[in-house]
Amino acid sequence: MASVYDRHVDLNQFMEGVKKRNPGQTEFIQAVQEVAQDIYEFIEDKEEYHEAQILRRIAEPDRVVSFRVCWEDDNHNIRVQRGFRIQNNNAIGPYKGGIRFHPSVNESVLKFLAFEQTFKNSLTGLPMGGGKGGANFNPRGKSDAEVMRFCQSFMTELYRHIGPDTDVPAGDIGVGGREIGYMFGQYKRITNRWEGVLTGKGQEYGGSQMRPEATGYGAVYFLQNMLKHKGEDVEGKTAVISGSGNVATHAAEMITKLGGKVLTLSDSGGFIHDPDGIDQEKIDWIKHLKNVKRGRISEYVDEFKSAEYHEDARPWSVKCDLALPCATQNELNADEAKALVDNGVQGVSEGANMPTTLDGVKVFHDAKIMYGPGKAANAGGVAVSGLEMSQNSERISWNHERLGEMLTDLMEGIHEKCVEYGDDGDGYVDYVKGANIAGFKKVADAMLAFGVV
Ligand code: NDP
């Protein structure tokens, strides 16, 4: 008798099912679509993956936890936010992925990020599953005391779902050293345990050297590997970068160290274009502006007269050799990708998660541009988080130099895996396909070993 479950549904039928089960979750559906098209090709003749419904299972989070977060603002108003933790897949290690505080946070955004994280973490070669969390809380404009009260309230629920061998969150948009400190303090207070339950901690209490730099530096190392594969280098090239947070400023720093010239940075208000280049001194000024003064990127032009500020605009129309989207998802669409290609861009490396729309990615692929997707290019952050977990478990700390070498090796390893599965045989590497297949294979094989669980 025929099974009611056809093991061999085609890609369209599979995606119809995903859409039906996740109504209105556009970001999540977009992320699954991007992975599924490559995986379908890869598993076409691999019956074991079909039989065990592996892709279907990876695209269904192990757990979605949603909770109320109440806190009191400085004017004694009671505020109510929604917190989440999405535990997508722990086949190869404890769930691992950042916490995002931003008004745009919802279940769809966090499910897409947790799904992507599963493949990214697998690509690093370290034993980490995929998860993500956050809340629709906007730290912008809040006092330190308000941020502290929010973080404490958030952790008062989150602590029961996480643990050093269960789920180890980190930072993401809106969650930096300050927020991690408040959350770690509350976890320690509630549980009476000092353990490596969060990464991105301060150096004084178990944080790893190189963690703040790792995502941005790693995205540039990935770009460097892509360029090297083509006999090219970063030196002497111009770069357009979006964002001005942790990832963007460190990407800018490494481009500069390697002899490139950074022309732009941005925030949600607009972008600055500095034709003289945003050098280390200017980057340090921006880090202070963002991390200490909590100011806006528009203030840059008051300090550095060579620059122009473009309000409500994104930087992709500026002519450049290299582009690094480092702000947020879907910040680079097909028209903008086309503008970059028309202006002669050679390489794109994503510091952010899914910053390029599916149509935009197609533009890069059709033009045979070197294009490093976030799940490969920005994996340096979670890789050093994995190293922070090892250091916490062993009660040791490695120095900056050693971690720098490890990060360089890890990014080279990720690049090699992408080439292994993504080389089209014609000299062009489809890094999306390479990352998807290499990331999928390890998780899928672990899941096969466990049977139906
Ligand atoms: P930060 O909060 O430090 O910085 C985020 C930057 O992006 C800010 O400049 C912010 O501007 C801008 N931004 C946020 N939302 C938007 C928007 N809707 N439109 C335009 N600009 C926006 O975050 P991170 O640098 O840590 O993260 C940036 C990206 O990198 C995210 O996609 C994140 O998921 C990804 N990532 C981060 C990792 C990490 O280690 N931190 C690891 C891997 C990936 P504004 O201040 O105006 O909001």
Explain this structure.
The structure is a single chain. This protein is 47% helix and 15% strand. The chain is of the alpha/beta class. Among the domains are: 63-194, 3-Layer(aba) Sandwich (Rossmann fold), CATH 3.40.50; 212-372, NAD(P)-binding Rossmann-like Domain (Rossmann fold, 3-Layer(aba) Sandwich), CATH 3.40.50.720. The strands form two sheets. The protein has a seven-stranded mixed beta sheet with strand order 9-8-7-6-10-11-12, with helices on both faces. The protein has a five-stranded mixed beta sheet with strand order 1-2-4-3-5. Helix 6 packs across helix 7 (177-191) and helix 12 runs parallel beside helix 13 (358-366). The longest helix has 23 residues, at 400-422. NADPH dihydro-nicotinamide-adenine-dinucleotide phosphate binds next to helix 9.
